Amino acid sequence: MRTKEIGLCLIFALTLASGAGAASGEAGPGAPPKPMSPAAFGEATGISVTLIGVTAAGGLVDFRFKVLDAAKARMRLADPKSPPVLLAADLPPLTPTLDALRFMRFEAGRILSILYPNVRNAVKPGTPVTVVVGDVRLEPMKAQ
Q1: What CATH number does the domain containing 48 carry?
Q2: Other C-beta atoms lying within 10 Å of the C-beta of residue 55
């Protein structure tokens, strides 16, 4: 019986120790990436988000961005296995349709748009939305 109690205490101590890093703001393995400022996000992805807007009577979310670096943007956004994702609160992520990025021409200075189905009315004007591109996350911005 004593061995069992010691084992449970050890498990509890290890659980507390592993949670200490997450509580202090450090990202551990499997933790979501820390949100970046718009400038850092642009440097990492090659795009600058210009609009997250609700359109089509609330049925679609319009994600607009300006291409800053065509090579980075193409590398980050053109992979169909890792499309840009929109997160609103604790609802499931919004993902673009399969062909949304297929024919995009990434050229510096160009403004591009992706329409997302607004599943479960996840995004309304004023809703904070986080953009995630691969392992990079933009700090939340309010939808218009």
Answers
A1: 2.60.40
A2: 13
DSSP state of 119: G
In a domain, 31, yes or no: no
Residue 35 in tokens: 């949100």
Give a yes or no: residue 46 inside a domain. yes
Spatial separation of the C-alpha atoms in residues 108 and 54, rounded to whole Å: 26
- Please name the residue ranges forming H helices in 24-104: 38-45, 70-77
Q: How many CB atoms lie within 10 A of CB 110?
A: 13
Q: Which residues pair with 77 in a beta bridge?
A: none
Number of folded domains in the chain?
Answer: 1
Q: What is the mean pLDDT of the chain?
A: 82
Confidence of residue 13 (pLDDT cuts 50, 70, 90): very low
Residues β-bridged to residue 112:
65
Rounded Cα distance, 102 and 129, in Å: 24
